[in-house]
């Protein structure tokens, strides 16, 4: 580690703790210090992307550039610097009856990170991605100019920046349209499914109360039980729906820490199988609807600080892919079978239905189903497994999520993102010297023809 003229050298990783790289970092204290300098650099928010998207030769830490600039509590519009976290946004807007239009499964992501990855939530099938609710961005480009862009102004830059993984410039300010809510609770209902076909049937049920929906999958169940799951559906509860005990109350979250690296041996096929069996029966037996504070429903993992250390020092890859609706059952079945037979247990497996893709050129979601699996980096054999999964995804016309990726190849990336060429032309126009470059973009050759 070393510190010269505000530049700190240190080991860094994403949330999956793989890969770990030596990077230089700078941490601007104020918005006016946030500027592009000569050389290869990449902005970093809270480092909640799993792989190497927020790593690079020089990393610009945006965490201090985090002022809330304006909040219109009548119209539900927030303007903030991009380093602000979702948790900070929620603390400001919730008391006024507003919520995020789209939220990922952690509130420890920054606004800039949510725009750059064009994150999706459990309501994607109804409300699209985070970027679709952004009214305007202020960007700092490679030539140090500051420009605003939106769906109607500098559109090409806007749709290349949303989902563009920080490679078009630094996102400085974000103007966001919020969602009106009636309480801080959700009315949640669990639907157990005995296998994958039943899970898909549930997702497709038009009668389902599914403002938000997500399925937890027991990925160690095989044979006739392959893909057995608990589909968890919810909507923001109106005040009159709440039981008297919850009216006017505010639950306060607590956080337990995994303050040590759990030996990888603790998470083995047997312990995970045991956990999955118990979880399936406990959660599946909760048939009656119940009310959950938004913190518990949306951010269960945030309650265990540093849970990423559960996978041990070698870290893990979160493999998240999406496959188009037609053929999704076959594809997800093949993916689960491959993982289940690999004896490389995934502690977490989540399935979610996604809606139509948007105009952002590198945005991940498309109409279909997305599967996310946590796979520990035990040895090099993991790469073979991931290549097999990639082949299944490609064969079905799907793609892997860049915000989670650490291992895709340039060829596979280009095959999965058919609008890459259009994105590359815009990158070439705004950043011809590749001033913005991350380890992800270097690995995938992003920005080059
Ligand atoms: C527990 C957990 C649950 C998650 N659930 C979901 C989910 O449900 N849906 C989903 O879509 N994602 C999910 N994610 C992924 C996460 O939301 C994204 O990776 C998000 O980008 C993280 O934001 P960050 O501020 O930590 O960004 P970082 O990880 O720091 O950076 C991510 C990318 O954004 C770019 N970036 C960050 N700030 C800026 C800026 N100011 N200007 C330009 N570029 C910038 C970086 O260069 C990088 O390419 C989850 C992650 C975790 C850890």
Radius of gyration: 21 Å
CA(first)-CA(last) distance = 36 Å
Poorly predicted runs: 250-260
Q: Name the shape in a single word.
A: globular
Largest sheet: 8 strands, antiparallel
From the structure provided, what is the oligomeric state, counting identical versus distinct chains? single chain
- Please report the first level of CATH classification, the CATH class of the largest domain: Alpha Beta
Q: Helices and strands: which structural class?
A: alpha+beta
Domain module count? 3
For the record, the CATH architecture of the largest domain stands as 2-Layer Sandwich
Task: Identify every distinct bound molecule in the structure, by name, code or SMILES.
Answer: flavin-adenine dinucleotide
Tell me the helix content. Answer: 10-25%
Overall mean pLDDT? 91
Major sheet: arrangement of strands? 17-13-15-14-20-21-19-22
Strand percentage, roughly?
A: 25-35%
CATH topology of the largest domain: Alpha-Beta Plaits
The number of E-state strands comes to 22
Helical segment count:
12
Provide structural commentary:
The protein is an alpha+beta fold and 449 residues long. It has three domains: 60 residues; 114 residues, Uridine Diphospho-n-acetylenolpyruvylglucosamine Reductase, domain 3; 229 residues, Alpha-Beta Plaits (2-Layer Sandwich), CATH 3.30.70.2520. Helix content is 24%, strand content 25%. The chain has twelve helices and 22 strands. It has an eight-stranded antiparallel β-sheet. Strand 6 and strand 7 form a beta hairpin. Helix 8 runs antiparallel to helix 9. About 2% of the residues have low confidence. The chain binds flavin-adenine dinucleotide. The site of flavin-adenine dinucleotide has 33 residues, from strand 4, helix 2 and strand 11.
